[in-house]
Amino acid sequence: MRRLIQIELQKLLLSKTNRVLIFISFLLPLTILILASIKINFFGFFTLELGQLGIFNFPIIWHISTFCASYFKLFFAIVVVSMIGNEYSNKTIKQNLIDGLSKTEFILSKFYTILLFSFLATVLIAVTTFFIGLYYSAYTEAAIIFRETEFLLAYFLKLVGFFTLCLFFALLLKRSAFALAFLFVLYLAEWLVFWGAYKIFGTTEMAFKIKGFLPLESIYNLINQPLNRVILTKFPDKTELAYDYDVHFHEIIIVVIWTALCVFFSIRLLKKRDL
What we know:
Layout: H1 2-13, H2 16-36, E1 40-42, E2 46-48, H3 60-69, H4 74-89, H5 92-98, H6 103-136, H7 142-145, H8 150-173, H9 176-201, H10 204-211, H11 215-221, H12 227-234, H13 249-272
Antiparallel strand pairs: 1-2
Helix pairs in contact: 1-6, 2-4, 2-6, 3-6, 3-8, 4-8, 4-9, 6-8, 6-13, 8-9, 8-11, 8-13, 9-10, 11-13
């Protein structure tokens, strides 16, 4: 594994564009979290301090930070698809195979790099969230601080699942731009499935359950939106806003299965393809 990651990192870091995108994908979520945690004075008219709203209290901060940070995954997704696109455009994929790298190892080198970057991103979010929470949270008991840290696992799997899906599309289409565009096509297709399920079963609840088995929706469902939860902390009487925001084991399993399928079919596709 270490050898394959080293090979892939050498390729990635040779590109200035990839270095910038990797830097942004790590830095931007942290910057947003840090800026959100400080006082912002709007030209003397009023001062905005989100920490006073209680959103940085433990344990809700784990939910909010991972949900918000997950929206910046597109930057590294560009790096992921370029890992394949550049191999075809620069014809380095043939050279890798000539130099003794098997087709399985070629795909695994990409997947292991995805695991590494997803892990590092999760650690950075965890450390930043922890210290922001320590500064703002009204709760300092260890049992409360480390409650709901399963959102970090969900965040890690969210990144791995999404990036692996991008990897498969990039290999399937051989072009970075086409791979990212196909994500939008898949997004529309999943809503068509939702519409079809609604027509058949007649309820949005059943339609969403079926849509939840599809790749993009299952990845999104790992971390539900925290807005309703924030509102409920301030207005507990608004029971109509109550919802299930927990990380569920069956949702984790669905994403793990899709991730495994993307890796498996990527290997099969490369083995069958005439390079």
